[in-house]
Queue: 2 jobs
Job 1
Amino acid sequence: MNKKLVAALSGGAALVLALTGCGGGDDSGNKKKLDDWAKRVCDQMQPQVKKITDANASIASVLNEEDSKKIQQIDSAAFQANADAYKALATSVQNAGAPPVKDGESSEKNAVKALNDLSSAYAELKKRVDGLDTGDKSKFSDGLKSIAGDIAKLSGRSDDALKKLQSGDVGKSMAKTPGCQKPVGSPTQTKKA
C-alpha cells in the first residue's frame, strides 16, 4: 500500500543528496569567496539532510505494515520532519546570500524558493495524511497513492533550481566542504519499492 509513496520519496532524497555531493576541483579566482560561501551553507546542511533521510527511511520501514493508523502516524511525523528540514535548508541558503558567481543571486533565490516550496508541500502532505480515513483500508490506500503522485511532481519541480545552485564552481566548492559531502554509507533503503 505504501510502495508508491516510498518510491516517490526516494526521488526527493536523491535530490537532496545530489545537492550535498557534487564533484570536481576549482581554479577560479573567486575561490576563497566561493569556499567561504559553501562553508556557510554546508555547515547547516548535513543535519537537515540526515533528518530528511531518516524521515524517508521511517516511511520505508512501514512498507509492509497493515495497520493504517501506524502508517498514518509514521508518515505524518516524517512529513513534518521533512517540512522542518527543507525550511532550515532554505534558511541556510538564504542566510549565506548569493554565491559569488555569475547569476548567483538568481540561483540563490530559485534554490530558496524551491526549498521553501518543498517545506510547504510537505506540511500540506502532513495535513492530508492526517486527514485520511484509517478505518477504510481502500480509501486510505487511495489517499496514499494520491500523496505519492504529488511528491513525485514536487521533486521534479524543485530539481531544476537546486541543480542550478550546485552547478559550476559553486558545486565544486560545495563538494569540497565537509558538511556538503555525502556521508560514507549513505542510506539507500528508501530506494526499495
Job 2
Amino acid sequence: MKKNIGIFTVTTVIAALSLIANMLIYQVPELKAASQNFIYSLPLVYLFFFVFTIVILGVLLTLGKKKKEQVGYIFLFLTSAKMGLSYLIARPILTKTIDDPTEKINFFIVFILFLAIEAYYTARLLNNK
C-alpha cells in the first residue's frame, strides 16, 4: 500500500514540477506572446494528462494484483484509449491556422512526459512478477 502511495506521490511531484518549469519557460518574452494564443491553457493540458496517468496507474496497480499476466495488455489498451482521446482534444490545435507550432510541440511533449511515467511504472510492475 505504501509503495502504491509513493507511485502516486512521485507522479504528482513530477507533474507539478514539470508544470512549473513549463510555465516559467513561457515567461520568456518571445514565448509569452505565443502562449497567449493557446487554445488550452498549460494547467489544463497538464491536468488532462495527469488525471489520465493516475487512472491508468490505478487500474494497472489494481488489476496487476489479480491478473499479473495481463498487465502489459491492459497498459496497451489504456494507452491506446488515452491516445485516441488525446487526438480528439488535440484536433483544434492541429487544425489551427496560425503558423506558430509552439502549442503543438508543447502538447506532444507533455503527452510524451506522462507516457514515459506510465511506461516506467508498467515496466516495474512487469518486472516484479
